[in-house]
Specification:
heterodimer, A: alpha+beta, B: alpha+beta, five-stranded mixed β-sheet, two-stranded antiparallel ribbon, 2 helices
Chain lengths: 169, 92
C-alpha cells in the first residue's frame, strides 16, 4: 500500500519512513480496552477505507481465548467482521492486541499468525499500572519492522491522504 | 455450477490480485484441488499434511468447516467458500 510510506525530509536526505498516523481518540480507545480486559489480552481492529491507510472506525473484538497469554478472534466473529468490512469497502488498517506482562513487541506467536501484510500491527503493554507502552509494526513474511507512531488530533493536517477532506467526527 | 471462493489479501498473489475466483468441487478438498489447478501454490498455503493449516479458517457459506466435516465438508452448487487467516497471537 503506497500510502503507508511517507516521504520525510531529514537534513539533506529524503527517504521513505514507515509511519502509522492515528487519531488520539483511537489510541485512547485501544488503551482503555486493554485496561478493561487486563490481565487477559485484549484485541480488535481499527477499520478504514481500502487503500487510504487511515484508521477510522474502532472495532473491539472478543478474545475467544480469554487468556493472559493468548488472543484469538472467534471464527464466527472473524467471518462477520470481514463481511462487514467488505460491505463497507473497508480493510483492517490496524490490528491491535495487548501484552499484559511483557513489552509491546511481537512474540513468535504473533509473527507466525500475522497474515495481513497491509495492516499496522499495534501492540500495547499494560504490564505497568500507571503507564502504557504502545508501538506499531509491519509483519510481512515473518519479518517484523517497527514503524513510528504519529498521534494526531485530527487527520485534517496529517501527512497521509487528502488534506482538504475533514474528518467525519 | 461453480462455487465462488473469497480470497484473503495474503493469498491474492496466487490469483493475480483477484478477491474472488470460481472453482468446482463437491467438497472443500475438491474445491481446493480445483483452485490449485489454476492458481498454483495456493494449496500449500491452506493444507499441511492433509489437514487444514491451523492458521487458516475456511467457511462454506456461514459455517466454519472445522465444525462441519473439515476438508470433507460438502459444498453445494452456488455456495460461497470463504478463506480467512485466523487473527490470533499473544505473549505465549
Amino acid at each position: 500500500m503506497a500510502a503507508s510510506t511517507n516521504v520525510r525530509s531529514v537534513g539533506w536526505a529524503t527517504y521513505p519512513v514507515r509511519v502509522l498516523v492515528i487519531r488520539a481518540d483511537l489510541v485512547d480507545e485501544i488503551v482503555a480496552h486493554a485496561r478493561r480486559d487486563h490481565p487477559d489480552e485484549a484485541c480488535g481492529v481499527i477499520a478504514g477505507s481500502e487503500g487510504a491507510d487511515r484508521p477510522e472506525r474502532f472495532v473491539p473484538m472478543l478474545n475467544a481465548a480469554r487468556s493472559p497469554t493468548f488472543y484469538e478472534f472467534d471464527s464466527g466473529d472473524l467471518l462477520r467482521l470481514y463481511r462487514d468490512l467488505d460491505s463497507r469497502g473497508e480493510v483492517p488498517v490496524v490490528i491491535y492486541h495487548s501484552h499484559t506482562a511483557t513489552e509491546a513487541y511481537p512474540s513468535r506467536t504473533d509473527v507466525s499468525y500475522a497474515a495481513e501484510p497491509d495492516a499496522h500491527y499495534v501492540l500495547v503493554s499494560t504490564r505497568e499500572q500507571d503507564t502504557h507502552e504502545l508501538r506499531s509494526y509491519r509483519i510481512v513474511d515473518g519479518v517484523v519492522t517497527e514503524e513510528q507512531v504519529e498521534v494526531v488530533e485530527t487527520y485534517m493536517f496529517a501527512h497521509t491522504g487528502a488534506d482538504d477532506v475533514p474528518d467525519n467526527v | 455450477m461453480a462455487v465462488t471462493v473469497s480470497i484473503p489479501t495474503i493469498l491474492r498473489t496466487h490469483t493475480g490480485g483477484e478477491k474472488a475466483v470460481e472453482a468446482k468441487g463437491g467438497t472443500v478438498a475438491e474445491v481446493i484441488d480445483d483452485l490449485e489447478s489454476r492458481h498454483s501454490g495456493i494449496k500449500d498455503r491452506l493444507i499441511t499434511n492433509g489437514s487444514l493449516h491451523r492458521f487458516v479458517n475456511i467457511y462454506v457459506d456461514d459455517e466454519d468447516v472445522r465444525f462441519a466435516g473439515g476438508l470433507e465438508a460438502p459444498v453445494q452448487e452456488s455456495s460461497t467458500l470463504t478463506i480467512l487467516p485466523a487473527v490470533a497471537g499473544g505473549m505465549r
